């Protein structure tokens, strides 16, 4: 019992130390390099593109291309229900994907690490949700950066837990509408 309690204490403390940013493009690539990060596991829904395909995170595609050109490996893990949509974005961004990933369970994270041929200490998870992305990063031993969630129709658990699960997108930030 004491061992389980201490595991939850460690998990809670490490979640409190996660980095938080407003958009993917606000993450400094040089800082990731200095931290020894070589790979990025990326969430799709409400991180790169809104779940309803209305908004694209500003400068996200450019940031991803810049990071790739500097040697970063990428992998998408998505719990999204529409497989064709995940496949479309996987091809558009030229990043392999696992869908459904069943985050926060560590299995898909392990597959992504294996495919990227990297250790968990060399990978950062970037996503918007505490209960899937941040917890999944913790369970797989990766660092995590939580981004503000792009505007989207709220799901039942977001109505219930809202600010506890996600960071709202800042009102003063630009949004890119998809055509």
Q: Describe it for me?
A:
By secondary structure, the protein is α/β, with parallel strands linked by helices. It has a single domain, classed as HAD superfamily/HAD-like (Rossmann fold, 3-Layer(aba) Sandwich). The protein is built from seven helices and eight strands; from the N terminus they run H-E-H-E-E-H-E-H-E-H-E-H-E-H-E. It has helices spanning 2-16, 29-34, 60-69, 83-93, 107-116, 130-140, 156-161, and strands at residues 19-21, 39-42, 55-56, 73-77, 97-98, 123-127, 143-147, 176-177. The strands form two sheets. A six-stranded parallel β-sheet has the order 1-7-6-2-4-5. Helix 4 (83-93) links the parallel strand 4 (73-77) and strand 5 (97-98). The longest helix is centred in the first third of the chain and has 15 residues, at 2-16. The radius of gyration is 15 Å and the shape is globular. Residues 1-16 have low confidence and may be disordered.
Number of domains: 1
Report the strand count: 8
Judged by helices, strands and strand pairing, the structural class is alpha/beta
Portion in helices:
25-40%
Mean pLDDT: 81
Low-confidence stretches: 1-16
Multimeric organization: single chain
CATH hierarchy, class = Alpha Beta
Mind describing the biggest β-sheet? 6 strands, parallel
- Beta-strand percentage range: 15-25%
Spatial gap, N to C terminus: 53 Å
- Helical segment count: 7
CATH domain fold name:
Rossmann fold
Strand order of the largest sheet: 1-7-6-2-4-5
Radius of gyration: 15 Å
Q: What is the 3D shape?
A: globular
């Amino acid at each position: 019992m004491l061992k389980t309690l201490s595991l939850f204490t460690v998990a809670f403390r490490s979640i409190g130390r996660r980095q938080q940013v407003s958009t993917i493009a606000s993450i400094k690539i040089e800082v990731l390099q200095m931290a020894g990060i070589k790979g990025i596991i990326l969430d799709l829904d409400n991180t790169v593109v809104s779940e309803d395909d209305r908004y694209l995170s500003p400068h996200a595609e450019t940031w991803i291309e810049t990071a790739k050109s500097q040697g970063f490996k990428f992998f998408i893990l998505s719990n999204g229900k529409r497989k064709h949509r995940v496949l479309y974005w996987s091809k558009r961004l030229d990043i392999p994907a696992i869908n459904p990933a069943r985050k926060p369970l560590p299995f898909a994270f392990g597959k992504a690490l294996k495919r990227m041929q990297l250790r968990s200490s060399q990978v950062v998870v970037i996503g918007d949700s505490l209960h899937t992305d941040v917890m999944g990063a913790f369970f797989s031993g990766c660092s995590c950066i939580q981004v503000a969630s792009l505007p989207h129709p709220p799901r039942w658990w977001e109505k219930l837990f809202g600010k506890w699960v996600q960071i709202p997108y800042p009102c003063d930030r630009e949004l890119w509408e998809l055509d």
